[in-house]
Every structure is written in C-alpha cells, then in structure tokens.
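Backbones bend. We report:
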Amino acid sequence: MAPAAASGGSSLPSGFSVFTIFPDMLFTLEFVFGGLVWILIASSLVPLPLIQGWVMFVSVFCFVATTTLLILYIIGAHGREASWITLDAAYHCVAALLYLSASVLEALATILMHDGFTYKSYHENISAVVFSYVATLLYVVHAVFSLIRWKSS
C-alpha cells in the first residue's frame, strides 16, 4: 500500500500507479467480479425476467463505467482536478447501492428458483449471487475510501 493511500491521499493516480495505490487498485477486482456476474447472469436460465434484467443492467453498467474510469485514470484525463475526486466518490457510492440492490434481488430470484430448475442452472445462479455480493463489498470499500479521499481534498 502506498503511503498516500494510508493517509487518505487527496489526489487521483494516473498511469499505471492506478494498479498500485489503494483504493484504486480495487478497479481490477471490480472489473473481474463484475464481469463474472455479467457472464453468469447472461448464461443462466431466467425464471424472473424483470429481476434478472435489473441485475444484468447493473452488472453491465458498472462493468462499462468502471472500465471507462480505469482507462481515463490510466491516461491521466483527470488532470489532478478536484472535480474528478468528487466524481470518483459519487460513482462508487452509486455503484455500491446499485450492486446491493442487484445482489438482494438475485438472491431472491435464486431462492425462488430452487424447485423446478436443473441442478446446473441453480448453481450458476448461486455463483452469480456470491460474486455479486463480492462485487458489492468491493464497491462499498472503494466508496468509503473514495469518500475519505474526497473529504481530505
């Protein structure tokens, strides 16, 4: 962990330091677990289209937005402006709330599909629920540390 991150540094990293400074190193894990949720929901049977449609929307939206922010941080598009720190904190708070709602709804859909579906489909949805909660936790942790960075900027 970099010293700036331990003290809640007040600037965003640029270049490949994004991968070495906490909480921005969480982008990679958010990318991986968000992608896993997206893949598992897309490949599973859909007993409740409205619920799983919301989960799919959240996972795709957060995957694309996280990828976009990561690329913008790597190329240094933020120019060390304070407004980007606010954007980072706001995005991660919204993403955490969206993923929390998606995780709860996916767990509900999985519970409701316990009877009447194949063993494979049920376990795909269980995996989606687990990865969705992991993604939620990652976004919450990133949001908390982004808010600390925003407060100190």
